[in-house]
Amino acid sequence: MKRIGILTSGGDSQGMNAAVRAIARSAMHAGLEAYGVNYGYKGLVEGDVFKMDSLNDLDGIINRGGTILRSARFPEFAEEETQLKAIEQLKKLGIDALVVIGGDGSYHGAMKLTKHGFNSIGVPGTIDNDIPGTDFTIGFDTAVGVATEALDRIIDTARSHQRIFVVEVMGRGAGDIALWSGISAGADAIVIPEREFDAKEIAAKLTDNKKRGKDYGIVVVAEGVMSAQELKDQIDQYGDFDSRAVTLAHVQRGGMPTAKDRVLASRFGDYAVQLLLEGKGGLAVGIRDNQLVAKDIIDTLENHKHKTDVSLADLNDRIRF
């Protein structure tokens, strides 16, 4: 092996640059060449690839949000003909293996390349924390911190104006961000896709809080359930509330990554290179009980699903009764 390609795809997440940096520098440390692919799978098919320099391309990016390789949606990559064009480009450039940093869609792209016999490794980079085979993904910790800070600020206004705020956070089909930020901010209720909810029960709880002297409240809803406005409208049907709906949206994806995300990304990136040096590929990198793991990417995606820790919702019910 002489050359490793690095690609970021799908939604950006804080810590992607730290992963790019770790992959490239670990490869260079082993005597390999590192090549960056611009604009995800679209750039790969179009041959938008460049040789990375340790100082000019990688210095000072560990603390930057987003991705220096940029990203682009490219649904055409689902077609076999397009996948084969990508492999042609990789072979033409003499790239022996590709490390893909991204979420579910990015992983499926890496899996397709693997099925065609091209050595690919997936590194989990998404704020949603919804990738099977790993406890945490790159960007999740930072996104939770951003959401928690926003909730803390909203609570100040809620308390000042005796209002109920329904706040929508990201997460795609997973409730992890909602759970972690909701518990951290002391939310009165957390609504996630993995657990049924009753708007009438939430309204009753908020009404009971008011009778007990708490005349404000925060309800956190994951985007995979419904919008903040929709949930607000449902809750309003069962109580006399001065309520507002807030959507945090993409603010959760930007900004400097936390130290935890920088270290996690660095560990993932270096581990991916070490696996390739050992002659291993077609893998999905992850972390379980703080130990790095690597599982077959095809088996991971086709036979496993991410499991949100729903017990955290039960915890919030007990400590916010």
From TrEMBL:
Chief location bin: cytoplasm
EC number: 2.7.1.11
Boundaries of every Phosphofructokinase domain copy: 3-276
Protein residues bound to ATP: 11, 73-74, 103-106
Single annotated GO MF: 6-phosphofructokinase activity
Catalytic activity: beta-D-fructose 6-phosphate + ATP = beta-D-fructose 1,6-bisphosphate + ADP + H(+)
Record's protein name: ATP-dependent 6-phosphofructokinase
